[in-house]
DNA sequence: AAGTACGCCAACCGCTGTGTT
DNA sequence: CAACACAGCGGTTGGCGTACT
């Protein structure tokens, strides 16, 4: 197998694994400063590192490379990630190209955490839907019973009792129905998702993710604070070629604005237009 | 204060894509 | 054109720190 002859073969030679030491980082840094990125398989020989080329590349790309951002993903970045993920799916490296200083690994990890949260919320939603369905079934059952009771001749007193019962149940059913309407209007309020934008202003939600739906779009807008990056790295051909089929089929253009107002660009059929 | 659950992140693994011979 | 070597990508895992009980 090809892979066995390449990285796999190298790993069989007893390369060191696990966390990198500061000494190893220093050696790798020196090597890249001297010879530049690439030729990772030579690192072991040239830099005196007992690491596979693959491991060296990963360490450089994800940790040592200059210009990497540290710290939490900002709400703006979060918005970009969500929107681009809706466009391209799990194309982490592609998404990472639009986020300067962020690695695909970082974005992948972020999304994983984010998706887990969403999954939990979805479970809550399913539970709620089941409860609503049950309530509606009970309501239907009650209405059927009431119809049967009305159809059978009874004494005045018992009829009156039934009328009162029916009225009470109808009132209760109406109340439940109203609750259903409320919960369907704000389906994920319980999970802090799909909340009204006003909630964000009130500080009730902390991030973009909290106000974005399954599609990851909010008013079709993407807020990007880094115009330099957008103009510097977005490549029309690359963007188009990297789009998946569904994105290419997407007829709707997604308009994006830079916060500064100096530039705006539009994703269209997976490409973009300034 | 101790134990447990959870989230985050660095790193590994296997596979695929690409360039070279 | 085929084989090979390397580079890159995405999924997964394990360890560590923190919050919660």
Automatic annotation (TrEMBL):
Keyword Nucleus in annotation: yes
Annotated GO biological process: regulation of DNA-templated transcription
Record-annotated HTH myb-type domain positions: 16-64, 65-119
Keyword terms: DNA-binding, Nucleus, Repeat, Transcription, Transcription regulation
Superkingdom per UniProt: Eukaryota
Database matches in InterPro entries: EOBI/EOBII-like_plant (IPR044676), Homeodomain-like_sf (IPR009057), Myb_dom (IPR017930), SANT/Myb (IPR001005)
Myb-like domain boundaries: 12-64, 65-115
Location in or out of the cell: Nucleus
Molecular functions (GO terms): DNA-binding transcription activator activity; sequence-specific DNA binding
Any one GO CC term of the record: nucleus
Pfam families in the record: Myb_DNA-binding
Name of this chain's protein: Uncharacterized protein
Gene source species: Prunus persica (Peach)
Source taxonomy: Eukaryota, Viridiplantae, Streptophyta, Embryophyta, Tracheophyta
């Amino acid at each position: 197998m090809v892979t066995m002859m390449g990285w796999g073969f190298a790993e069989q030679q007893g390369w060191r694994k696990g966390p990198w030491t500061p000494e190893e980082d220093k050696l790798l840094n020196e090597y890249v400063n001297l010879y530049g990125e690439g030729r990772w398989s030579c690192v072991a020989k040239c830099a005196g590192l007992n690491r596979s080329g693959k491991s060296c590349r990963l360490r450089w790309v994800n940790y040592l490379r200059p210009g990497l951002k540290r710290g939490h993903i900002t709400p703006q970045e979060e918005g970009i990630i969500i929107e681009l993920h809706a466009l391209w799916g799990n194309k982490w490296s592609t998404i990472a190209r639009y986020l300067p200083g962020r690695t695909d690994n970082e974005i992948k990890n972020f999304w994983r955490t984010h998706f887990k949260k969403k999954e939990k919320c979805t479970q809550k939603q399913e539970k709620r839907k089941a409860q609503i369905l049950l309530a509606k079934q009970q309501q239907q059952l009650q209405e059927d019973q009431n119809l049967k009771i009305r159809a059978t001749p009874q004494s005045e007193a018992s009829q009156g009792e039934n009328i009162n019962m029916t009225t009470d149940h109808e009132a209760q059913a109406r109340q439940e129905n109203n609750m259903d309407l409320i919960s369907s209007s704000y389906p994920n309020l319980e999970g802090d998702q799909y909340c009204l934008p006003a909630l964000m202003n009130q500080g009730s939600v902390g991030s973009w993710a909290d106000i974005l739906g399954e599609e990851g779009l909010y008013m079709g807008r993407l807020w990007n604070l880094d115009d330099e990056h957008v103009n510097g790295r977005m490549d029309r051909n690359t963007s188009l070629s990297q789009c998946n089929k569904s994105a290419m089929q997407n007829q709707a253009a997604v308009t994006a604005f830079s916060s500064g107002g100096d530039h705006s660009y539009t994703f269209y059929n997976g490409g973009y237009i300034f």
